## 1
Amino acid sequence: MEYQNLLYQVDKHIAFITINRASALNALNQQTLDDLEAALVSAQRDVEVKGIVITGAGEKAFVAGADIKEFIDLSQSDAHSLSQKGHYIFTELIEKSKKPVIAAVNGFALGGGLELAMACHMRFASDQAKLGLPEVSLGLLPGYGGTQRLTRLVGRGRALQMILTADMISADDGFRMGLINEVLPAEGLMDRVIQVLDRIFSRSSTAVASAIDAVNACDDSSRNGYQVEIDHFSNLFLTDDFKEGVDAFLGKRKPNF
Ligand code: CO8
């Protein structure tokens, strides 16, 4: 598969998706969104892939937002379709992914870029990263899920402060408010992300997928999250991984999932 604006590489069970428009600070134009969708579908279909990392090319930016230069030609209905498309990719292909998805936030994560990071299951950031939802400074508001996901992650007061002021915050401030899992020196960022994924890969992938779905149910008003947990928990009793996990514990050995 040829991608115009991203790099896709699979190594040791990890699909690395690198948004590759460094000259535009990796802004998500429509082509990049198409590439991202195709790369995520490939990663989901590839049985060799157990986890996904999303990052940005270059040292300056993760993703500096949707491509503002494309906005000029958009009608209201184009903007609606594009927002809807972004929501589909971020929710269905990232947030609901059965394989863990980690954002390696290597620089500016602004607007649609922070929204992309927030759709991922975890966010690890370089100490140089800057985060923000600057859309109101353009006469807009976040359009790829930011009003909802930021509010869930950091609470209404802090979400509204970030959204209404349009100010950027540091990675350390993002860590303090629960937006960022860990802050690392830039040179150690990817090693740490790989280390975390390897740790997850040593666990039961079936249980991991169920846990992601149960946690997602917390934000899904159409489902009772407690019931989802009960159903997944009991269904896991039917799996080989459960038998292996318990057998390994009782036999005082490492499980072989
Ligand atoms: N879109 C298009 N081009 C961009 C973007 C962007 N979001 N961000 C940076 N660039 C381009 C610049 O135009 C510049 O290009 P050129 O060299 O051709 O002039 C190049 O990247 C380098 O940028 P700067 O020279 O501005 O670099 P600085 O270091 O001076 O500043 C900043 C870095 C602070 C990150 C600055 O570039 C900036 O403020 N960028 C815009 C950030 C922003 O407002 N993002 C939000 C966009 S809106 C959005 O994301 C909505 C999401 C929902 C969409 C829903 C569907 C429609």
## 2
Amino acid sequence: MKLRIGISCYPTVGGSGVLATELGKLLAERGHEVHFITSSVPFRLDRVYPNIYYHEVDVNQYSVFQYPPYDLTLASKIAEVAKRNQLDLIHVHYAVPHAICAILAKQMIDNKLKIMTTLHGTDITVLGYDPSLREIIRFAIDKSDCVTAVSNNLVEQTKDLVRTNKEIETVYNFIDERVYMKKEVEHLKKHYELSQDEKVVIHISNFRPVKRVCDVVKSFAGIQAKVKSTLLLIGNGPDLPVVRQLVKQLGIDDRVQFLGNQKHIAELLSMSDLMLLLSEKESFGLVALEAMACGVPVIGSNAGGIPEVIVDGETGYVCPVGEIDCVVEKAVSLLTDDEQHNRFSSHSVKRVHQVFHSERVVSHYEQLYNKMLES
Ligand code: GMT
């Protein structure tokens, strides 16, 4: 059955926005009518897509208010779009504020809207520790018609932190396999002055402190002392200056390239031999999945949902948070053993297709939508 689906998320760079947008695109391909209700055009919505509509949440700054009323404007917009387009449901990404806005919108239109909330981590693992927000997060979860989280670990953490009895179903993240695949990039390697005999280690994040990018740099310092290699750092964020300073201090400036935010991630991954994702909090780690789809093994920390994505000793390695020696040892073993690397690389691609395939995940969401609408 064709559904009319609203989607609200933070549209800027970030895993939750990426996931929400890719989901919307694939739902539209399946014939559903998809309405994005966001503060700007989601950055992955980079051309015209049939069945996709965009409604801007235009937040005004009134001098009488100390803060711009984003939440209230979003709630009004969801109500308006839902009524005008007769939406069957709104799928919001984040309990706070987006589920709260949807609950308000639902009340504004006489409760005629089903709400699905997907938890991505930051809303729980950061905000859930704040006693002033815990009650409202629980309210958002309890009042949603269906709640999903992106890993089993996040389901457990939510139950522990927020103390809700609501059923929360794990629906893993996915990537678009037509985009994330190994590509021919010899010309690019030349552009980045990467020689044939050197290995490429990559890290992609928003450089927030939870990503522990300094651990990535320290690990790489150990790796490059044993294996000729270059580190590509992709992204931007608050820790960037500290990371730059550390690179200088360790005397590895000539081995590290800072590339800032990038659009064509699959190409950069296709030049790489290994990804490092050493976060202290990570509900899933979508970048790890993107790497695996391009045949790049990942060494990750044992934080959050990362061990559900990486199979230790098969598609990469899992090391305790902050244990640099473990990362260096595993990385050197992978980068110096071609047979092991090829095996891990093909297991990574296989795992993405078997466990995290977009067909499977989008069908799962569709089933949950239908179940929610029947109830
Ligand atoms: O990782 C971030 O800081 C961004 C954040 C977000 O909300 O966009 O990512 C979260 O959602 C992603 C998509 O589900 C997950 O892959 C990330 O692991 C998760 N980040 C954290 O839990 C820190």
